[in-house]
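User
New here, help please:
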Amino acid sequence: MSKAKGKQRAAGELTVRQREWLAHLKGCAASGETKRAYAKRHRLSVQAMYYAAKDLRRRGALAPARQPARTVSFVRVPTPASPPGAWRVRFANGAVLEGTDALSSESVTALVEALLVSR
């Protein structure tokens, strides 16, 4: 239990100020205005309004914020078929090396060594 101005309050009971904020938050929701517009019109701090909403939700006095519905959809994207033996190497610097002939391990080794020397 908490004390407010020397009086004890039952758990879950709201202070006068919390009830005022609750009325403002309900009024804002009913008006259809954004919290920012409502706060400006009533000369309130929008930050204090958000804090009060968070506090009142935590206490169960205000319904949880409605989360926008998230829809996820996937679209299958066809990829062009690569010819047999095609290969592609993308280097960290963005350079791309590709070919259509099959490479032996000796060819790959020689290619990598040549690239290392050319640095």
